[in-house]
Amino acid sequence: MASIVGLLGVTVTGTAFAAGTGKTPAEITASLTGKSVEQVISERVAGKTYRTIADEAGKLDEFKAQTLEQKKAILDQRSPMATSLRNKQTLFKTQ
Q1: Cut 0.70: pTM above it
Q2: Consecutive sets of 10 residues in the chain, 95 residues long: mean pLDDT of each?
Q3: From its phi and psi, is residue 24 left (phi > 0), alpha (psi between -120 and 50) or beta?
């Protein structure tokens, strides 16, 4: 029963991310590690974090970069002000 609840928690969280960017944390981890999404979710349900799974495959930096981009996209989608501020920061960096 705990595994089913854990799996549902992973799925619900993944769905929230997918709505914003099209890729769940499980999909990012799977694409970086060469594992299937099902394998990654099984490891997650067993207690490993996506970060740990990526780290064990030597892909931690790539995982962090992709999840950061994913989080930025979600924020941009939820808050037009965040997009405006990021654009202004970029503008000041290039001057």
Answers
A1: no
A2: 47 48 87 97 97 98 94 80 70 64
A3: beta
